[in-house]
Design brief:
Number of helices: 14
Number of strands: 24
CATH topology of the largest domain: Aldehyde Dehydrogenase, Chain A, domain 1
GO molecular function: aldehyde dehydrogenase (NAD+) activity
Largest sheet: 7 strands, mixed
Structural class: alpha/beta
Subunit structure: Homotetramer.
Protein name: aldehyde dehydrogenase (NAD(+))
EC number: 1.2.1.3
CATH superfamily of the largest domain: Aldehyde Dehydrogenase, Chain A, domain 1
Oligomer: single chain
Family: Belongs to the aldehyde dehydrogenase family.
Strand content: 15-25%
Number of domains: 2
Mean pLDDT: 96
Length: 509
Amino acid sequence: MDTKFLQELGLHTENAGTSTGQNSMDSGQYIESYSPVDGKLIGKVSQTTREEYEQVMATAQEAFKTWRMMPAPARGEVVRQYGLKLREHKDALGRLVSYEMGKSLQEGWGEVQEMIDICDFAVGQSRQLYGLTMHSERPSHRMYEQYHPLGIVGIISAFNFPVAVWSWNSMIALICGDVTVWKASEKSPLCSVACQNLLRDVLKENNVPEGVSCIINGDYKVGEFMTKDHRVPLISATGSTRMGKIVAAEVGSRLGKTILELGGNNAIIVTPSADTNVVLTGALFGAVGTAGQRCTSTRRLIVHESLFDEVKEKMTKAYGQLRIGNPLDENNHVGPLIDKDAVQNYLNAIETVQKEGGKLLVEGGVLEGPGYESGCYVKPCIVEAEHDYKTVHTETFAPILYLIRYKDMDEAIAYHNEVPQGLSSAIMTNNLREAERFLSHAGSDCGIANVNIGTSGAEIGGAFGGEKETGGGRESGSDAWKAYMRRQTNTINYSTEVPLAQGIKFDLD
């Protein structure tokens, strides 16, 4: 395989993983990154020691003193230039994402495009960090609110979106005047080094202080350095619900703030009026895109009994046409799972749901032979299941789709909302009343609810996040920037008297 893209991104056999803006440190202990595409070693990243972490934090704290005082539009200009740098290296970075994580090349390029888009969004946002002006009840007084940067924002990202989720957080945090420390997944560490290499050049060109953007590398123990650190007022963490509960408890114990983007168990409701061709397209990509390793992947297809057989037939036929293989080959639709642990979880879920009574409509299994040497390639499968199976209520990060039958809209919404997760949702319908009900207070309980598109593929302009065990956080667009700042209410008295609020009298003789 041609790996020139590694050299373009400044990646070599070994990479010093702890980085403070322009400088990097090498602990001599390494995380090895193996590609799920072919099982080969891509490179090694230095693990962050406690001493290196302390150096990173000191450098970040010092950088914050300068960065916060730069006008927000000036900070936006630095982010704009980073967006240009990403455009220049989109092909190479997209290939790295595909090779290190295993998603299709189209999805790898798409993830880098998300980074570019959020840079553009952040640039505009840098001139729109608005507060409100309020009328005071006291004469000759003015009230308003403003937003100030928090300080150091800790970002913990997952393997499935190894660059985009960091950019959602980091680009918005940067225009808000924060500095960032990023711990990427130990399953895709080279992507973080590549992003930092590109950003380092932009920071140097703008004489931005070292430490505005830093990376640390390691397993959950390195992440705990940040979650327990009072110097980090905000932790944005993406990962499993189990991980999120630990982070929330640790950060909450010190009264810090969290943005949590956790598990999803997303469903599409298919009503009698649905266009089954639209259903097919939306459900297929949602279920098999990124080999089912998106937090927004479609796990459940809840189909009205009048369309059940038709949808089952079309989905089964479509699955038979999927091409599984090297994701850097654009002819393939589905790449590998991230590692063999993920493969085992996939196999366990299929075995368990069958014991519960599930019927395999499209059989799963591990692929073997030439091109599948990594042992991480599996077959996307479809299971006809009942809505209340324990396995159906559990998120399995793999391409398993549960096909569920329902009788009426009340039943469909009940089935939809009964799982503990609440990230993304969709309804396929041409009935206005059904669509509006799904979007109403009595409809989907998820943070994202769509009509006639699938659950996967959110745009950066809207706030991204979910409810219940998904964590309740919001990232990316809309007014998500407010989470990265502290709100301050100001009152100015321009009179010669000091009247108290609520008409309280406190007169002295």
